[in-house]
Amino acid sequence: TPPTITLNSGTTIPQLGLGVWQATNDETERAVRYAIDEAGYRHIDTAAAYGNEEGVGRALAASPVPREDIFVTTKLWNSDQGYEPALKAFDTSLKKLGTEYVDLYLIHWPLQDRERILRTWDALEKIAESGRAKAVGVCNFEPHHLQVLVDRGGLLPAVDQVELHPHLPQQGIRRFASEHGIAVESWSPLGGTSNSGWGPNSKPNTLLVDPIVTRIADRHSKSAAQVLIRWHLQNGLIVIPKSVHEQRISQNIDVFDFELDELDLSELDTLDDGTRVGAHPDEMNIGAPA
Ligand code: A2P
């Protein structure tokens, strides 16, 4: 089973989890069932905006593994930012997930409105106090967004989940987060979907076929995906590769029988070219309340 990381909330998170972005409810239910019951995953990462919380909920309800052994993350969508809307959206997510609590509740995007971020964070702090989220955090926050919460005082995010992979290692965010006891989670850890990018500055995935990555993979008789997942783990990051295919779900957790050496890690570090597959947080305002 994957190692855990202790969050500033005092709770622990399995360092490797299953992402389910772009999967339907039925695909999600199947993938999560397989991941938990067959492959040994204990951490599932969904979001209200993915439209598949019910699929996650059905899998949790059907699994013989007890709820308290599974770490469940969901996220607050942009249109629900603000104090009352966030409280209401959280209730809706719990209902869809069919659970009394989530392990982690995240603000999905920072949006451009600092005042609204603060009101939303007030709601998440209240949710954390109620125990219905064991930890709360943010996604896609740049250091300047995190600074708003640091300046506010009070509860700090347990995690910042950002696009992160060897093309975009996010050293600035990692430095800021580590100085403030915030764990960093990598989304699109394999470099995103292979068909196309979706953000304004985005490019299609090239990491899984990158010659540096595949050469290291050959050296270890592992796949490119497994090499990339090790890079995240060995960099102390929480990693949530997405797949709806059983063989890949199994492969992505079968990464605890090998280790990248210093040379592998430094070769992978040369891939840093700042390329994103998703939107830049400062340009993302989809669904923002008026
Ligand atoms: P699929 O769900 O069809 O398996 P990321 O986690 O970086 O967003 O990347 C996920 C993308 O990579 C998805 O398109 C997923 O597709 C694919 N993928 C996930 N695991 C693997 C793997 N082990 N080998 C190749 N492709 C993978």
Describe the fold and architecture:
With 290 residues, this protein is of the alpha/beta class. It contains 10 helices and 10 strands. The chain has helices spanning 25-39, 53-62, 83-97, 114-130, 143-152, 171-179, 211-220, 224-234, 246-253, 262-269; strands at residues 4-6, 12-14, 18-19, 43-45, 71-76, 104-107, 136-139, 159-163, 183-187, 238-239. Strands 3-4-5-6-7-8-9-10 form an 8-stranded parallel sheet. A two-stranded antiparallel sheet has the order 1-2. Helix 7 packs across helix 8 (224-234). It is globular. It starts with a strand and ends in a 21-residue tail after the last helix. 48% of the residues are buried. The model has no long low-confidence stretch (mean pLDDT 94). Bound molecules: adenosine-2'-5'-diphosphate. Residues 19, 188-194, 208, 223, 225, 241-245, 248, 251-252 line the site of adenosine-2'-5'-diphosphate.
